[in-house]
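Technical appendix A lists one of the benchmark inputs used to test multi-chain prediction within the project. The record comprises two sequence entries:
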Amino acid sequence: MIRVEHIPVDGDDQRSVAVVTIDRQEKRNALTPDVLENIVGVAKLVHAGQGKAHAIVLAGAGPTFCSGFDLSLCKDDPLVMPDLLTKLAAAVRALRNCTVPVVAAAQRGAIAGGCALLAGCDFVITDANAKLGYPVVRLGVSPAISSTTLRLAIGDGHTRERLLDPGLISGAEATRIGLASECVETPEQVLPRAVELATTLARKPHHALVATKRWLNEIDGSNDSQLHNAALQASLAIAGGEEERQRLQAIWK
Amino acid sequence: MTNATNDLCLLDRTEAVAKLTLNRPGARNALSIDLLDALSNRLDELAQTDNVNAVILAGAGRAFCAGMDLKAVLDEPGAPAQLLTKIANVTLKLRALPMPTIARVNRAAIGGGCGLMCVCDFAVTHDDAKIGYPEVDLGVCPAVVAPWLVRKVGAGVARRVLLAGGTMSGTRAHELGLVTSLAPSDSLDEEVRNLAERIASGGPVALRATKEWLNKLDGSTLAEQVNRGALISTEVVTSDEARACLSKAFSR
């Protein structure tokens, strides 16, 4: 479900870019609790300095980065949605807390939980016609969980717009508002560009880069556990409720 | 509320989308004490209404809103304070509405009108609209609207916009984040209606929970700063400097 490939930087065995790939192509890389736990695990390994990764690329196998939660898991069990939300929050925080810079390669689509992952990354590469957004209010789910990291990237005004509007925006618009840091022309160019950027970052003096990311996390509110938990609780408060149940059932019908 | 006052702010509803219309077209919907009372009452009504999932705020006639009707209150003791206290309360009520709000901005959103626009969760206008906060040019301090603009576009942009005064085009307002999207002026209604219907397709419980959380997150529930803004604005607008600047502007 998660593949990790190390690409040595300039032939140095001790300095690599770790490409962490969500690989559930048959489900457009839909997120399961296991996938999210694995993302946390990889990010924590790098954070603990185990391994040689000096930068991470978070990628999705196949044509689309990530279509969001695997909703089929929620069909018969009302406890899955709260579990997914809780693990998504943990994954986003693990990406943000990871010592080294994280670059997301978000080709073609980053929807709902997939889009939430982007806000935990330091850089996001997407393509001009990609579709990004949080259409989850249509499912009776609150995207409040994404608010605390999203506002750091795009500010409160755009956060309000993106989380209350279930519509999707293009990669070009996402770049304009700061949800993505860079937009390339085609989906095929996304991963190569993300690896190129991560390689550039991995070449930089390691301690300086780590110290700078740590300091930015400290000053911009990334470490505010209380706030992140409150956001998660706002989503959990209605998770598994009647509106969500009815709207999910309508999809399966 | 008398019928005459009631008519200053109209409330219509089509399925899950409600529309509030500022209705003083002869004065380009300038915000008078009576209009703010009418808007305030409509907001109370909407806050208690179930089955509304999105609210559009519009202005009747040629322009969304020309700003505060200072001309009407300047020579009446106590009236400026009353007007500014009322706009402060209206901004708090508008933001506290449980459902998402969209400003439909045709032609102009100036001063207090631009303030109402930025309190809404979304704003749609056209490229050559006239938008902004010219308060400082008139010797007036935009203290009530400042906290909302900071929340909308961040402290850095808000500082530059409010201190520079003047107005900007719809295009520039979109670039700076004051406005969500632009539409050709002849399809503004269609764009706003599409956005409202898309939002209204969300689950009411999920939309209300999300908006309530966002209001907590960005400090929108804190009334103290906005109310203090009303006091500061009152102090400045009743100064000799403001009187001189406004008299000159009104005599043009």
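Chain B touches chain A at residues 100, 121-122, 151-154, 177-178, 180, 195, 198-199, 201-207, 209-214, 216-218 (CB under 8 Å). Strands of chain B lie at 9-14, 17-22, 54-59, 101-104, 108-110, 122-125, 130-132, 168-169, 181-182. Comparable benchmark entries are summarised in Table A2.
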